[in-house]
Amino acid sequence: MTVRKRMGCSPYFTTTSTHPLLPANIVEATYLQPPPNLLLSTTDLIACRAIDLQHRQEDLDHLHSQVLSACCLAAICFETEHAATIHNYNFKAGDLILMRNTRIKVTHNKKMKPCYLGPLVVISRNHGGTYIVCELDGSVLHHPIAAFHLIPYLAREHITMPSNAFDIDTSCLRELEQTKLVDDDDTGKVTSKEENYLLLSLSDFS
Q1: CA distance 97 to 116
Q2: How far, rounded to the nearest angstrom, does the alpha carbon of residue 62 sit from its chain's CA centroid?
Q3: Nearest CA-CA partner of 161 in 199, 203, 119, 205
Q4: How confident is the model at residue 135 (pLDDT cuts 50, 70, 90)?
Q5: Highest mean pLDDT range out of 77-81, 104-108, 124-128, 165-169?
Q6: Closest by alpha carbon to 98, among 142, 128, 127, 133?
Q7: pLDDT tens-digit series, residues 171-203
Q8: Closest Cα to residue 124, out of 98, 95, 160?
Q9: If DSSP codes are grouped into helix, strand and coil, which group holds residue 61?
Q10: Helix, strand or coil for residue 112?
Q11: What is the dihedral of CA 160, 172, 119, 79, to 10 degrees?
């Protein structure tokens, strides 16, 4: 399967006119062997190919630990470098929040449109980390809102929301809390201010 120097192709290609399909994972092939620093001899090349095909479990475990530690270190470095801009507000039920109006990012007259919508009231949080919010009159938004869309509304007092104030039954609310849905508000669709606000205020009557 290795290319011969005199022939310019492998004996397998000479016999079958096709290149061999090796049972190797193309993603792992980059990491199981370190990149060569210089040209290899034919013996060393065959040895490297044999090591790739062996798929030793200790090599895969070492690869997994190295990649995982690199990802964790990169996440820690990112949090350290952006500590001044990363905020984990961790909103509770009844907190007043403002929602970023992302639909105006692609418009040319966004300076004249509201950057935030609200205030809205936090109901709960689902398993995906997004928030279930409602209007001040209890109208529940039909999809959860991602955390990076929300900022706290600096209110003087905390609002107590009774459970019967929402226009959604308990089963639908529990279903939203069990999901990992994320809002699809970053579609870039251009709408007017009234259409945008009405769309976000619609409740799921189905």
Answers
A1: 10
A2: 26
A3: 119
A4: confident
A5: 77-81
A6: 133
A7: 777 777 777 655 555 443 433 434 444 444 443
A8: 95
A9: helix
A10: helix
A11: 100
| Location of structure tokens 């909103």 | 91
d(CA 163, CA 81): 41
Domain boundaries, the chain: 11-81, 96-201
What are the contacts of 110-119 at 24+ separation with CB within 8 A? 113/193, 114/193, 116/151, 117/196, 117/197, 117/200, 118/153, 119/153, 119/155
pLDDT at 193 (0 to 100): 38
Nearest Cα to Cα of residue 142 among 132, 150, 151, 128: 132
Q: What percent of the chain has pLDDT over 90?
A: 3
| pTM tops 0.70, yes or no | no
